[in-house]
Design brief:
The complex is a heterodimer.
Chain A: H1 3-16, E1 20-25, E2 28-32, H2 35-41, H3 45-54, E3 62-66, H4 69-90, H5 94-107, E4 122-124, H6 130-141, E5 145-150, E6 163-178, E7 182-192, E8 198-200, H7 202-206, E9 211-212, E10 219-221, H8 228-244, H9 249-275, H10 281-299, E11 302-316
Parallel strand pairs in A: 3-4, 5-11, 6-10
Antiparallel strand pairs in A: 1-2, 2-3, 5-9, 6-7, 6-11, 7-8
Chain B: H1 7-12, E1 18-24, E2 27-32, H2 34-45, H3 52-65, H4 86-97, E3 102-105, H5 113-126, E4 133-137, H6 142-153, E5 158-159, E6 170-174, H7 175-178, H8 183-188, E7 191-197, H9 209-216, E8 218-225, H10 234-244, H11 252-259, E9 260-262, E10 265-266, H12 269-277, E11 280-281, E12 284-285, E13 295-302, H13 306-326, H14 334-342, H15 347-360, H16 367-380, H17 385-397, E14 401-404, H18 408-420, E15 425-428, H19 434-445, E16 450-453, E17 468-471, H20 478-488, E18 497-504, H21 508-519, H22 529-537, H23 544-554, H24 558-581, E19 602-603
Parallel strand pairs in B: 3-8, 3-11, 4-6, 4-7, 5-6, 7-8, 12-19, 13-18, 14-16, 14-17, 15-16, 17-18
Antiparallel strand pairs in B: 1-2, 9-10
Helix pairs in contact in B: 4-5, 13-14, 13-16, 14-15, 15-16, 15-18, 21-24, 22-24
The chains are: A alpha/beta, B alpha/beta.
């Protein structure tokens, strides 16, 4: 994710969670969080449990989110020098300047003044930053299970005509190929609950549509032809068939390393067990077993599939 | 070959919701079905349903984080503001991709083992291969590690304080704490994805409780960090490797038979190197050592004013008398030695110590009038020769400068002295809390020209932006002098560093400067060399500091003292020669035992 992508991501998150953006530029947002976003992002569980118990009006936090540190800082620096120049011009003579400076110094010590702006903590959001990671988590926490309808392209001329819709089970799967190393793939499937048809890259198709949580007028939904369990089976079978065609030399390599490592510790522990004193033997054997299980844990090749998120999507047409 | 799994079977094992399918003779596919159960659950209840935009954002986040390939070093894209050096990156890469995440990082001092470990740690975290992580370090380094991981690597590491801290994902603790109950049970009850042990050479002896504790920890990946993998004999190396990969060098008896002639002498070096290369990386500094900028050291001899000289002589007299009265008891004399050193620094420092001494003596003590006499002498002193010279130097260089002194009182005096001349000076001392230290650093980086520091140790004071340093007075412990220099003369320093030693003629200080500068050649040593010299010197009796104090008290007169210090100096020069030429009979550097050159690269570190 580059700066622009981060910026767009943050913007959409803030809008989706109804935060009030007080100020923004292509490089930053100053934002007062909505209660929902505050709960997710500010790590204040005690505060929120207090608000919930007492029923008080929550005071949410305001943040400065900087999405492009370099440009933002450069712009701020520029502003500062400009302001300083303007100030210098204002101060007609040196005495005024000195007086202003003295005033500035003493005002700097005024605490708790009502005029003092609220402290706005700054967070630099870049790919890898903890706060952005928290935004990712927050998106996931409230973006996992959806139930949506496609908005009709255009209203039908005939108010009595009804457009047929099909219900789809859509799921975005993350597949992990792991041993002591790891890589991942994302597979997006959609299964028509009417016919059992399975479509790959279903997510890409979804984002071309306008989707709404409300049932549109003048549509009817085709009766489901298959059960949910059947649909799940289709997803898993399709995935399995696809993955079977892959190259597993990485797993063969990992297994070979696993065997090699097991062989190596056998060479170390077996004589040790044999020569151990009777009373020490159980301890040595236990350690031997522990080392073996550590090595399996480390090297055993495995593939796991889990859902990123999923939902039921009612789309136009009969498929 | 498919293992049939029905949804009924999956739901029968409620709680796990995992279906297993065979993909390849060696690999199963495990499908997590918890999503499906939850989706059905929500359908039955009619919601609640999540937001479509957040659904897309969740997906985009996953797409951005996806791990595309087995062998990229992914952590770098998450660390935009941090640029590790080339050898650090290639080391991390090698540990992750070729060594299966178990390695000894044995770079020479100053090449950034911590950074390498941090990169490996971050990489495993980014890839989702490590979550529970334990970092065992000497107690004095716990906070430094925590800070470094947080600041440089964006890893929420926590310093272990209470028993409940063990619940955090990334915990930094001292091994001495971790091995004791109640911590021990908690630590041994955890399967750690990654364990990092810093200063691992402390684990070389397998009979120690620390070694045995480290050996029974349960771990997947493991990094051992040490600059000296072999200090005394070959078994140390064997023991370290056994922690990581038992059997890498065969069993204990195979190792002895195959690789060891004498406990200090290896055989079959090629095979040994081959075996080591699977588990150890050692990068070395280039031939020229780290390519630091130059150091210019200048001793500035000063003659005390008459009044100052009178005070110095009176204090010397006073100290000698007390020593003779005590019958040669050294331990109670330390504050008096301090007094003599302080008199070379500032009258304020002497005054404070005298006042404290005065308070401690009983009211009718014969000492009181003598102390009073000294205070009278202090009153006569109107100017500080050193401070004036320092001012002259500072004005001349017209640049940022750090002034080190040993004494708080001198520090306060200098702050006032410079402020009186409208120069901005800020203090720095060990007792300040973290926030205040950072603040002082910021001020010094900003508009303050002068930093006056009493402490050079500790972390966080990295002053590469400043290349002038004045030693207002010198510590008697050479390590502390090196620490001072190290604050300024380090990686990242772009200018030649100028060091000025203020040195009052005809005082103990003259001898000390001579000893440190001429005899140890302290100001020109490469990092790490002083360690070797002192280690060997102190095998004798006591530290340099203690021996100097003793000499000073026992010396009858100045020429006697000079002779004694000269003697000390020549034994130091001799040790230095030995260390520098590598003639040392006992190998103190590991490369003398085994040539480890093939286990890493040579790094020409450019500042």
């Amino acid at each position: 994710m580059n700066e622009k992508q981060v910026h767009k991501f943050v913007n959409r998150y803030l809008e989706a969670t109804e935060c009030s953006i007080l100020e923004k530029s292509p490089t930053h947002f100053t934002v007062k969080l909505s209660p929902h976003a505050d709960r997710e992002l500010t790590n204040r569980p005690y505060y929120w449990s207090f608000v919930d118990r007492v029923g008080a009006d929550p005071e949410t936090m305001t943040f400065l989110f900087v999405t492009d540190k370099h440009k933002y800082d450069a712009a701020e620096e520029l502003k500062k020098t400009e302001a300083a120049n303007a100030q210098a011009e204002e101060a007609v003579n040196a005495q005024d300047a000195a007086a202003n400076a003295a005033l500035g110094r003493s005002l700097g010590f005024v605490h708790g003044s009502l005029a003092a702006p609220i402290r706005v903590p700054r967070e630099d959001l870049f790919f890898g930053a903890r706060k952005l990671e928290q935004l990712f988590e927050a998106a996931k926490a409230k973006g996992s299970f959806v139930h949506l309808f496609q908005e009709p392209e255009r209203r039908s001329a005939n108010p009595f005509a009804s457009t047929p819709y099909t219900a789809w089970l859509g799921v975005n799967m993350r597949v992990e190929f792991a041993s002591d190393r790891k890589r991942e793939e994302i597979h997006c499937y959609g299964i028509s609950l009417a016919t059992g048809l399975c479509v790959e890259h279903f997510y890409d198709r979804l984002i071309t549509h306008k989707l709404t949580p409300r049932l549109p007028a003048n549509i009817h939904i085709t009766k489901n032809g298959i059960s949910f369990n059947k649909a799940l089976n289709i997803v898993e079978q399709t995935l399995e068939r696809k993955l079977k065609s892959y190259d597993y030399s990485w797993a063969e390599g990992a297994s070979a390393r696993l065997e090699e490592e097991l062989e190596r510790i056998r060479g170390y522990y077996e004589p040790l067990v044999k020569n151990a004193l009777e009373e020490n033997r159980p301890a040595v054997e236990e350690q031997f077993a522990q080392r073996q299980s550590e090595i399996r844990w480390q090297y055993e090749p495995r593939v796991t599939a889990s859902a990123i998120n999923c939902g039921i999507f009612h789309l136009e047409g009969i498929d | 070959m498919t293992i049939p799994t029905t949804p009924q079977a999956a739901s029968a094992e409620a709680g796990t919701a995992i279906a297993t399918r065979k993909l390849h003779p060696l690999v199963d596919l495990q499908c997590d079905r918890s999503w499906f159960d939850e989706l059905q659950n929500r359908l039955t209840k009619g919601g609640p349903w999540d937001d479509w935009t957040l659904y897309q954002l969740a997906m985009e986040a996953e797409q951005a984080k996806r791990i595309e390939s087995f062998d990229e070093l992914l952590c770098l894209r998450s660390l935009p503001s941090f640029e590790p050096m080339e050898h650090q990156i290639s080391t991390a890469r090698k540990v992750v991709h070729e060594m299966g995440g178990r390695a000894i990082l044995a770079d020479e001092v100053g090449l950034g083992k911590t950074i390498e470990a941090g990169l490996v740690l971050k990489e495993y975290m980014v890839r989702g291969l490590a979550k529970r992580i334990l970092i065992l370090v000497p107690a004095s380094l716990v906070l430094q590690w925590v800070r470094e991981l947080n600041q440089k690597f964006g890893i929420s590491a926590v310093a272990q304080k209470k028993a409940h801290t063990w619940g955090y994902d990334v915990v930094v603790a001292s091994i001495d704490t971790a091995k004791r109950e109640p911590h021990r049970e908690l630590v041994l009850g955890t399967d750690y994805d990654l364990i990092i042990i810093d200063e691992a050479h402390k684990l070389k002896n397998k009979k120690t409780s620390n070694y045995q504790f480290a050996n029974i920890l349960r771990k997947k990946y493991c990094l051992l960090l040490t600059a000296t993998p072999i200090q005394n004999d070959m078994d140390e190396l064997f023991n370290l490797i056994t922690l990581l990969k038992p059997g890498q060098l065969g069993g204990q008896s195979d190792f002895a038979a195959n690789f060891v002639v004498d406990k200090r002498l290896p055989k079959n070096e090629d095979q040994l190197q081959e075996a080591l290369s699977g588990v150890m990386i050692r990068n070395r500094r280039g031939d020229g050592g780290i390519h630091f900028t130059k150091r210019f050291v200048k001793n500035i001899p000063l003659t005390l004013s008459e009044d100052e000289k009178a005070l110095y002589d009176a204090v010397t007299e006073f100290v000698k008398e007390r020593y003779e009265e005590s019958g040669g008891d050294l331990s109670s004399m330390l504050s008096l030695v301090t007094l003599q050193r302080e008199v070379c620094s500032s009258r304020d420092a002497v005054f404070l110590t005298l006042v404290n001494l005065f308070k401690k003596t009983s009211e009718d003590s014969p000492m009181r009038p003598k102390i009073w006499e000294l205070v009278e002498k202090i009153k006569h002193i109107k100017a500080n020769t050193k401070a004036e010279k320092a001012m002259e130097l500072v004005k001349e260089m017209n640049d940022k400068v750090i002034i080190f002194t040993e004494y708080r009182a001198t520090q306060e005096y200098l702050l006032q002295f410079f402020r009186a001349q409208n120069m901005i000076a800020v203090p720095y001392r060990g007792g300040m809390n973290r926030g205040k230290k950072d603040w002082m650093m910021d001020l010094f980086r900003g508009r303050a020209q002068i930093l006056i520091a009493t402490e050079a140790g500790g972390e966080g004071i990295n002053l590469q932006f400043c290349h002038h340093m004045i030693n207002f007075d010198l510590p008697w412990n050479p390590m502390r002098v090196e620490q001072r220099i190290g604050r300024v003369h380090r990686l990242g320093q772009k200018e030649d560093v100028k060091i000025y030693n203020l040195c009052t003629i005809g005082t103990i200080e003259e001898h000390i400067v001579n000893l440190l500068h001429e005899k140890i050649n302290l100001f020109e040593l490469v990092i790490g060399e002083l360690d070797h010299i002192l280690e060997r010197f102190e095998k004798g009796d006591g530290s340099i500091e203690q021996r100097l104090a003793k000499m000073m008290l026992e010396a009858g007169n100045d020429s006697d003292l000079k002779q004694k210090i000269n003697h000390l100096g020549s034994s130091l020069s001799r040790i230095r020669e030995e260390v520098m030429t590598g003639d040392a009979k006992v190998a103190s550097s590991p490369d003398l035992l085994i040539n480890l050159d093939s286990l890493g690269q040579t790094v020409e570190v450019q500042p």
